[in-house]
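[User]
Um, tokens okay?
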Amino acid sequence: MSLHSLTAALLFCWLMTAVRCSSEYAALWTHDDGETGPLSAACMRCISETTTGVSVPAGGALFNISYTYWAYAFGISGSEQRDEYNACVSSPWCAARTVQHNMRLFLPECVRRSPQRAPCETALALHTFGAQAACLRELDVGVRTRLRTCLDRQVQQWLTTNVN
């Protein structure tokens, strides 16, 4: 596939975010290398931006991760590890790893159960509402709009940088 036809396909795919992209193109925007997880950097940026309201949040607000969300990702019970939690959510690497871990656990089933929704939108629902059944809940219009605006901006930045 030529770069121009791939670019056109990706643009169409992202412009039609309400419709799930074909797996051939969606694979370009999701990536699971076993270390970072199933979500692309663009999707992760937009989940962070959509949940915090800013493009580069300060301190521990990177993904608005609750103690329960963090503890579940790492199999921790009880509330005795608050220092570790605070350190993790304040670290961009650890906070992203927490989100990616939860996505690895639950996103495949959520995507399977909601195939009409774009994978990043499903990931945001899972991140916002919690595991499995809750990920089928609809995001409100304002949240969906913020996510899609961010994803559109990510595509534009990618096109500007990678297409000559």
